[in-house]
Specification:
Blueprint: E1 2-9, H1 14-22, H2 27-33, E2 36-43, H3 50-59, H4 63-66, E3 72-75, E4 80-83, H5 111-117, E5 122-125, E6 134-135, H6 149-160, H7 162-166, H8 170-178, H9 181-198, E7 203-208, H10 210-218, H11 236-253, E8 258-264, E9 270-271, H12 282-288, E10 293-294, H13 299-306, E11 312-317, E12 321-326, H14 332-341, E13 345-352, E14 355-359, E15 364-366, H15 379-387, E16 395-399, E17 412-413, H16 419-422, E18 423-429, E19 436-442, H17 443-458
Parallel strand pairs: 1-7, 1-8, 2-19, 5-6, 5-7, 10-11
Antiparallel strand pairs: 2-18, 3-4, 8-18, 9-17, 11-12, 12-16, 13-14, 13-16, 14-15
The structure holds zinc ion.
Length: 459
């Protein structure tokens, strides 16, 4: 059977990928890349964040079309905060347990729909599941048991967060030793892919998520052996090599099939500065300046808690990017001034008379007139592909190099427009493909290229 798989390895920056390839540390991907279209700079959509990236890969469209404008946004009509934030308190208003990523939120068709029309049987072991015939879990072995993603991820994170391990009790350490949740995600997802293909499904997308987690916790440039283990990955390199190994297991288990496999990432990752000043809560700083601002909760919840009128909602992604919603239009200028003065903010974007305008703190101009330079790949196209969405904030901001829009002790973050956040890799492999190179492509191109070649081969 001819089978097309797409592996999304989360948060893999181009230069760290290239370095590992050069050192021969990703032997499986290296072998596949010799019969593949190799995208040298695979550029993420904006924000360079996980749910947006996965939606862009699975639909081949930008957020203005697929609707997933970030890890979080504010639904003006429903007056609610939508948060795909895995690690903090998780509002359960976004989840559709049957589909995992709420179908109401994903507004365009996916490659599952298109592949089905072409006669394929489709499966997802990814965040994006809309239209898939079979929904496999990416946390537990087997098909999805309709357990909402936040619950699954909460369970994982609860046991695997770097900090909680350090501070953990003997009991927790013992539990982790028996059930090393973190290590298992890659293995479980690979096992589920094999199961789905053996059950006759010939088009699937799946997700290795721990590369991104390791990058946030330890930093995107970390190498194996830096921190020591024993229970979780000790570095980005460690997690990436594990993903490579699991792909190897899939290939071996499915060697009787003709496998076409795309391997890509959803975004890159920037190294964050060392020190409290690099981790900034925009809503907390606005509150200090007597702007009634909040994040991660609905306006009515804020008003009940603090007894003040809600004025600004901050919805961060990555979180080196944030949507800012000004509920009280009377303070729009004050919010703008706050953002200009804030030392963590790099760019501010907004719409004005059907034009996209930006402020880089020195000057305000139309986006087309701005000289972004090489450090901001396809910036105009990507910002436009976001800001056209009605779900976008009144202001969209990115963080300066080294900064993130949350209080954490993370060493890595993403979400921005800059090269470190935005540049990843992609390889589009098929049996007997020639080794080819494409200089630049967007994440939205990966499945388009992969499918156009694959369908030719199949028919
Ligand atoms: Zn991601």
């Amino acid at each position: 059977m001819k089978v097309m798989l797409t592996a999304v390895i989360d948060g893999v920056r181009k230069d760290t990928f290239d370095r590992l390839m050069k050192k021969g540390k990703l032997p499986v991907i290296e072998e596949l890349s010799k019969e593949a279209v190799n995208v040298e700079n695979c550029i993420s959509s904006f924000p360079s964040a996980t749910v947006t990236g996965h939606a862009s890969i699975a639909t081949s469209s930008f957020p203005s079309e697929h609707g997933i404008v970030g890890q979080a946004w504010f639904d003006r009509e429903m007056n609610e905060y939508i948060g795909y934030d895995f690690e903090l308190t998780m509002p359960d208003n976004w989840i559709d347990a049957k589909t995992n990523l709420n179908d109401r939120h994903l507004t365009s068709e996916t490659w599952f729909h298109r592949a089905k029309r072409l006669g394929f049987r489709t499966f997802s072991a990814d965040l994006i599941r809309k239209g898939a015939d079979l929904k496999m879990s990416f946390i537990f072995p087997g098909a999805d048991r309709n357990i909402p993603v936040p619950k699954k991820l909460f369970l994982l994170r609860k046991f695997s967060a770097h900090q909680s391990i350090k501070k953990s009790s003997i009991l927790k350490k013992f539990i982790l030793k028996i059930f090393p949740f973190h290590i298992l995600q890659h293995e479980i997802v690979a096992g589920n892919v094999v199961k789905a293909v053996r059950a006759g499904y010939n088009f699937g997308i799946f997700w290795f998520m721990e590369t991104d987690a390791a990058s946030h916790i330890y930093g995107p440039e970390t190498v194996e052996g830096e921190h020591g283990k024993p229970y979780i990955y000790d570095s980005f390199e460690d997690a990436m090599r594990d993903a490579d190994e699991e792909i190897g297991k899939i290939l071996k288990a499915l060697k009787d099939h003709e496998l076409y496999i795309n391997i890509t990432t959803d975004h890159g990752q920037s190294r964050l500065g060392d020190g409290k000043q690099y981790h900034v809560s925009l809503s907390a700083e606005m509150e200090e300046q007597e702007i009634n601002a909040f994040t991660r909760i609905d306006p009515h919840e804020y008003e009940t808690r603090v007894g003040r009128k809600a004025q600004v909602v901050v919805a961060p992604s990555g979180p080196r990017m944030a949507h800012i919603y000004v509920l009280d239009t009377g303070i729009r200028q004050r919010v703008n001034d706050f953002l200009i003065d804030n030392s963590a903010v790099e760019f501010i974007f907004w719409k004005e008379n059907h034009e996209v305008v930006l402020c880089d703190k020195d000057a305000v101009c139309r986006i087309q007139e701005y000289e972004f330079g090489d450090n901001y790949p396809k910036a105009v196209e990507r910002v436009t592909g976001l800001i056209k969405s009605m779900r976008s904030g009144d202001f969209i901001v990115t963080a300066k190099e080294g900064y993130e829009f949350q209080i954490s002790d993370y060493r890595g973050g993403h979400g921005g427009l800059n090269a470190e956040d935005s540049l990843g890799f992609a390889i589009i492999h098929g049996p007997d493909y020639r080794e080819e190179f494409i200089q630049d492509a967007l994440v939205t191109d990966v499945l388009r290229i992969g499918m156009s070649r694959f369908v030719k081969e199949v028919s």
